[in-house]
Write a structure and sequence with these properties.
233 residues, mainly alpha, 7 helices
Length: 233
């Protein structure tokens, strides 16, 4: 019941994005972020966000992703550097999720799992080393917990699809269908996957409360999209 409720809340969350315009604007290279109040100075921080955000070849994000703007106008200067770094790691893990899903049960199974684990471990280490501004600790904790739970899900899915490949070979025209069927079975029964979705929803709720009335609809949408991009698992 808890898992079903968290999935329902996550699917309904876009309806709460008040002021979320539709159409071509959502694909703009940079969201139109309007400065608010006196928090207009550009934060001094190292920009970790990559120029290239395309998903790995042959994959797609579960959401139409808008790049993080260089300036997060309207937010406290101390928060901007942290969010730049945190959401850069979110993007890195979202891409790793897509890559490992494509590799599971194929000839690239073991290589894909190693690459995934390396990427997630690096992201977790970067996040754990980050100085978290006061008030963002709940978001930070929920994000870390969600990524750890997703890693546990991938480990479980890797074991299941690896065993299936050894048992049945997973070759030929029906290989993709068999892999997808096995992955869906893991999703249905995975406590870790359901818990990760709940943690991400909680992380988003902390951001929404903190920045209510301070961020633009475009920035709100952009940050939400990044958390949704983790949902490919």
């Amino acid at each position: 019941m808890v898992g079903s409720r968290s999935r329902l809340l996550w699917m309904l969350m876009p309806l709460a994005l008040l002021g979320c315009e539709r159409g071509a604007e959502i694909l703009s290279p940079r969201p139109d972020v309007t400065p608010r109040g006196d928090a207009t100075a550009e934060a001094e921080h190292e920009d970790w966000y990559p120029e290239e955000i395309d998903p790995p070849e042959g994959t797609e994000y579960p959401v139409r992703l808008t790049p993080l703007p260089e300036r997060l106008d309207g937010l406290p200067a101390g928060d901007q550097g942290y969010l730049n770094h945190a959401f850069s790691q979110v993007l890195a893990v979202a891409r790793a999720n897509l890559a490992v899903l494509r590799a599971l049960g194929t000839e690239f199974h073991e290589e894909g799992l190693r690459s995934y684990d390396d990427a997630v471990e690096e992201a977790l280490q970067n996040l754990e080393a980050e100085e978290v501004p006061g008030g963002l600790e709940p978001f930070h904790g929920e994000l870390l917990a969600a990524l750890e739970l997703q890693r546990a899900f991938v480990e479980k899915a890797g074991a299941e699809l690896g065993a299936l490949r050894r048992r049945e070979g997973l070759e030929g025209v029906q290989a993709a269908a068999k892999r997808q069927e096995a992955l869906n079975a893991v999703r249905r029964h995975s406590v870790e996957g359901q818990a990760a979705r709940a943690r991400l929803l909680s992380a988003w709720s902390h951001l929404a409360r903190r920045y209510e009335g301070r961020w633009s609809p475009a920035l709100r949408r952009c940050l939400y999209q990044h958390l949704q991009a983790l949902q490919s698992l």
